[in-house]
What does this fold into?
Amino acid sequence: MQGLPSFRINEIFLSVQGEGLHVGERTVFVRFYGCVLRCVWCDQPEALTHTGVGEYVQMGPEQVRDRVLAYPSTRRVCLTGGEPVVAPTAGLLWLVRELKASGYWISIETSGARVVEELFEWIDFWTVAPKGTSAETFEGDVVEAQVPTLRRYLALPDSRRQFKFVIQTREDVSDAIRILDGLGYRGSVVLQPEHERGDGRLIFEVWPWDRYPEARLIPQTHKIVGLH
Ligand code: SF4
It folds into this structure.
């Protein structure tokens, strides 16, 4: 609304949720432009500033709401990116309140590298996706770099949160375990093979199922069925 800063939006589209525990659910995606990280295997280079292929349109929160509402027969929306939590907070809060008032179930996908606690009460379901060494996005140890911020996400109830690890290498598996151990994490864990070089069989073989038996191995299913 008037006075609220606009967003940089890469795209808004209807598809099915292809990743994680809510896989298969018909969902409107709002993809925000820009991210604080630079994962080398990011599958959304069009939403990043440094890749040379990034693109966005400037949209006010009201325009975004109206685009979401225009899709019929779904009341599920996913805020994704890029990194949605670094969009202007006042605009995000306005948008999520409006969508909640219209009956939407709202999910969000974040790296967990930033925290906007005002959003915690409004978002129904959080996907927090820490990064392993193969992403080449942190200097130094990936666990030390991420655990202090990730700890803040432990405030969310288990039913409203999943930690999702994109895994390309055996080292990524070790990183994921060290992150979970460092957090003392108990809750939903999704292991997602990296889209080009990830190997689900490797993950299946080396994951410590005795220690984290509830983890789920789920690939990007929307790509399997040919959806965006
Ligand atoms: S955090 Fe996500 S959006 Fe950002 S660069 Fe990494 S994979 Fe891409």
Observations:
- The domain at 7-223 is CATH 3.20.20.70 (TIM Barrel).
